[in-house]
Design a protein that fits this description.
The structure is a single chain. This protein is mainly α. It has one domain. It contains 13 helices and no strands. α11 packs antiparallel against α12. The longest helix is centred in the first third of the chain and has 35 residues. Bound molecules: zinc ion (2 copies). The site of one zinc ion has 6 residues, from α4 and α5.
């Protein structure tokens, strides 16, 4: 079965082209061509790696589904409605932990390390995160949802997240209370102090409001990561986090502080290493 995200690639390409054209036409600096082409290249390669890791992860999901004591039927609407909420909640925690523990941040940093915010950033995704994200989604199969149902629902969840990477849509009225919107996701990509590690939602911003990680867009976000990467090398973009973690670990003496390098928040680590935040 073809992944809905793969089928959407021509649509993503068209939308990126239109937005880049609008940006130039309206004299906005939303796009930098080298950055955008790097994002697109990283996106294509990540689809290839995703298919490769998906082969193994599919096996894990199949076993988990076999172990589920109850199986949800695929031909009733309420199964899909329930799956939508469960998948979106699982995404919230996967995304939140990807920010709050350095081991997982080393993958997710790829998505945040562009200094720009536009639709091409949406496809800038880690090549290697397929090695870990099953940890967060296997429970969905253990609850009794077939792996193919999860793949379809999760695919649509990711497709939704594409269009919120834009600076052209300002505010969306009443929808801002329920949905993750461009405004909320701009905040998520901001490194201004109040914006750090906020708004983790996939589709429903309700999870952030429930779990205390929501903040509204009140000032213009500054995009990127605390310590700018200044590299367009796709392999380095995908691996620099591991290198920095390794260097930090070597500096530590005790096992506890070495483990803290791996599992503590990357921001905590940055402040301890006194990397100058650029404000
Ligand atoms: Zn993120
Ligand atoms: Zn994003």
């Amino acid at each position: 079965m073809l992944n809905p995200v793969v089928i959407s690639i021509p649509f993503f390409a068209l939308m990126i082209a239109v937005e880049a054209w609008l940006s130039r036409r309206h004299d906005r600096d939303y796009y930098e061509s080298k950055d955008a082409w790097t994002n697109i290249l990283i996106g294509f390669v990540s689809v290839g790696f995703g298919a490769f890791f998906g082969f193994f992860v599919g096996g894990i999901y199949a076993v988990a589904y076999q172990l589920a004591p109850f199986k949800f039927p695929a031909d009733v609407w309420w199964s899909w409605a329930l799956l939508f909420f469960i998948d979106d909640l699982a995404y919230y925690w996967f995304h939140r932990i990807s920010h709050e523990a350095r081991l997982f941040w080393n993958f997710h940093v790829v998505h945040h390390s562009s200094d720009h915010f536009n639709l091409s950033v949406a496809v800038r995704q880690s090549w290697f995160s397929g090695t870990v994200h099953w940890i967060f989604y296997t429970p969905v199969m253990l609850l009794g949802f077939a792996p193919w149902m999860f793949a379809v629902m999760h695919g649509f969840n990711l497709i939704y997240q594409f269009w919120i990477h834009t600076r052209f849509v300002k505010r969306m009225g009443i929808l801002e209370y329920v949905l993750n919107t461009p405004s909320h996701h701009r905040v998520h990509h901001g490194v201004n102090n109040p914006y750090l590690d906020k708004n983790y939602a996939g589709v429903l911003i309700v999870w952030d409001r429930m779990f205390g990680s929501f903040i509204d867009e009140t000032e213009e976000p500054r995009y990127g990561i605390i310590k700018p990467l200044r590299s367009y090398n796709p392999l380095w973009i995908n691996t620099h986090g591991w290198h920095e973690m390794w260097v930090a670990m070597r500096e530590r003496k005790s096992l506890v502080s070495k483990l803290r390098c791996v599992f503590a928040s990357p921001n905590m680590e940055a402040s301890r290493r006194s990397i100058e935040p650029i404000i």
